[in-house]
């Protein structure tokens, strides 16, 4: 059991180090040597888990779609908003998530590995479809179209906020994006009950970890 746990930790350390280097240098300029140095592992330890930079990139992308911290809600639209807010809170703090976007917008890496955007669209689309079936969406709203456009908008906001000289806070920016979009898709009675605060994700993650400890 101890060996297995150590192997899991080592594999994770390899992925986090690779993600940090991909974030800093881009995929093409990243080297195995830099990743090994960042992970503070031997070459043998890294190659036990990943035989190439390509495998490391695929491993990073495999971690991209996550709903950590998501808690079932009485309103499916609240869950949809929570997915967006949780990712906004976590992405600047978790190299694996930010590197998955860096790889996705890198034309060479995208050509080699694809992206996880279709998976995100499918995930949020399913939540929106449930919201539609429950009568939470306005009649004209198409869940699939909304999911696709929202994932594009979310990604665009993230990329722009990252390079703005004043350093826009991503949680606040996504909170504002939700405030602009929700009145156009949610029925009024549901809209009034939704929480899109930029601090909501932090509260959800705190509650989730408190439950795990108890």
Q: Portion of residues in helices?
A: over 70%
The chain-level mean pLDDT equals: 93
Element pattern in H and E: HHHHHHHHHHHH
CATH topology of the largest domain: Tetracycline Repressor, domain 2
Shape: elongated
Report the CATH C-level class of the largest domain. Answer: Mainly Alpha
Main beta sheet strand tally, sense and closure: none
- In terms of structural class, how would the helical and strand content be classed? mainly alpha
Number of domains: 2
The number of helical segments is 12
Q: Give Rg in angstroms.
A: 19 Å
What can you see in these coordinates?
The chain is mainly α. The protein is 70% helix and 0% strand. The chain contains twelve helices and no strands. The chain has helices at residues 2-25, 32-39, 43-49, 53-62, 76-90, 95-105, 107-113, 117-133, 143-163, 170-181, 188-191, 200-213. Helix 5 runs antiparallel to helix 8 and helix 8 packs across helix 9. Mean pLDDT is 93; it is low at 210-214.
Give me some keywords for this one.
0% strand; disordered C terminus; 12 helices; mainly alpha; Tetracycline Repressor, domain 2; 214 residues; 2 domains; Arc Repressor Mutant, subunit A
SSE blueprint:
Blueprint: H1 2-25, H2 32-39, H3 43-49, H4 53-62, H5 76-90, H6 95-105, H7 107-113, H8 117-133, H9 143-163, H10 170-181, H11 188-191, H12 200-213
Domain HTH tetR-type: 8-68
Protein name: ScbR family autoregulator-binding transcription factor
InterPro entries: ArpA-like, DNA-bd_HTH_TetR-type_CS, Homeodomain-like_sf, HTH_TetR, Tet_transcr_reg_TetR-rel_C_sf
């Amino acid at each position: 059991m101890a060996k297995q746990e150590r192997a899991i930790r080592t594999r994770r350390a390899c992925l986090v180090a690779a993600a940090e280097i991909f974030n800093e240098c881009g995929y093409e300029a990243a080297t195995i040597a830099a990743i090994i140095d960042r992970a503070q592992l031997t070459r043998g330890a890294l190659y036990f888990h990943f035989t190439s930079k390509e495998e490391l990139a695929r491993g990073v992308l495999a971690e991209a779609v996550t709903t950590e911290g998501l808690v079932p809600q009485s309103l499916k639209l609240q869950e949809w908003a929570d997915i967006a807010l949780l990712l906004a809170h976590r992405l600047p703090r978790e190299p694996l998530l930010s590197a998955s976007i860096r790889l996705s917008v890198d034309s060479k890496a995208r050509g080699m590995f694809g992206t996880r955007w279709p998976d995100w669209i499918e995930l949020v689309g399913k939540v929106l479809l449930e919201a539609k079936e429950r009568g939470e969406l306005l009649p004209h709203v198409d869940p699939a179209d909304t999911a696709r456009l929202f994932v594009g908008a979310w990604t665009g906001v993230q990329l722009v906020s990252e390079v703005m000289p004043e350093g826009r806070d991503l949680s606040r920016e996504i909170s504002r994006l939700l405030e602009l979009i929700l009145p156009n898709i949610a029925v009024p009675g549901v809209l009034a009950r939704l929480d899109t605060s930029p601090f909501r994700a932090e509260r959800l993650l705190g509650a989730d970890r408190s439950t795990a400890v108890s």
